[in-house]
Fold this sequence. Notes:
5 strands, rod-shaped, transmembrane helix, NfeD-like_C, Inner membrane protein YbbJ, membrane, transmembrane
Amino acid sequence: MHPSILWLLVAVVLAAAELAVPGVFLVFLGVAAAIVSAATFVLPDLPIAAQLGAFAMWSVVAVLIGRRWYEEYPVETSDPLLNDRARRLVGETVTVANPIVGGHGRVRVGDGEWPATGPDAALGARMRIISVDNGILIVEPV
Length: 142
């Protein structure tokens, strides 16, 4: 099989993998594979070491260009806290699961428990999350 077809197949597989598992990374490797496919079409006797070297070089170039693109043109979202579960909790009312004594305890959030700091509170007391610090909820009485 001609090397350009193999590299084109690699490009298609990488692009399909990006669609299946979006991470905005494999697409850049797919672009690099497509460039190497074009190079091997023009230079069919290009040694495999040169092909792999070109793929590595173009992968780095494509990733750097893509990274710069996303820095200059960030993707707008209607939910900026989508992947920040802790910050989404700010403002929620929670129940004390382990009494807060000496400023430290645990609160029930949904079906789980989180470490919390705040004023002393008895088991079952209602608290409001005012902020999050390194995975520890900072709470105040409701």
